[in-house]
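It would be a great kindness if you could assist me with a short task in structural biology. The matter concerns a single protein, recorded as an amino acid sequence and a row of backbone structure tokens. Could you please explain, in whatever detail you think fit, how the structure tokens follow from the sequence? Thank you for your consideration; the sequence and its tokens are set out here:
___
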Amino acid sequence: MHDDCILTLSGVHTHIGQYHILQGVDLRVPRGGLSVLLGRNGAGKTTTLRTIMGMWRASAGRIVFDGQDISAMATADIARAGIAYVPESMAVFSALTVRENLLLAARNGPLEQARVDWICDFFPALKKFWDVAAGNLSGGQKQMVAIGRALVEPRKLLLVDEPTKGLAPAIVDSLIAAFAELKAQDTTILLVEQNFSMVRALGDTVSVMDDGRVAHAGSMAALVADASLQQRLLGLSLEAHQ
């Protein structure tokens, strides 16, 4: 077990209605760097992120973030504790401008111009479409707004669910650069992602989910180097997805 984990899930079960989705998840996210959560569709990755955020309530087990048990906390309190969540659905307010979307995310007062400039350095499109309604943007641009919203205030932990889904390669490259810069600035990131060129470039540690639990945990470098392990855990080769 990693000595300094910012987030630890121990024996976490989640039921959604009659469905038993998470079936004893043990997950360790080391402080600093980027951890990747892999797994086939339906393995429980998104449910894990939503359970961490309190959007689904764990029916058993314990979730500890930065030394604090957050298992029974409300989503708003979990966010205030320092976790930001970027869902797969690209959560933006379509009728509001890019500026207004970021302004709403600034819970602790006005937008800091230095922070806005920093976000726009990653995503120049945000500055270009600053006064445009987010609903008029492309999918890639909306994803940039969604990630920008999560970055408006410094967070200890960023949960990101499949940010590259459906995006053009050039936009994926800009996301990789943005996440690499965030890593360099000591934001811990837990990333659910199917784009293996991205996770290979960024991942420090990896956990692979299967059928509602973690089937493998280790370094990303070890998984990338072991084709038979990739095949056994994921039914694919990372090399084939470069």
Summary: The chain is about 35% helix and 30% strand. The domain at 1-82+202-242 is CATH 3.40.50.300 (Rossmann fold).
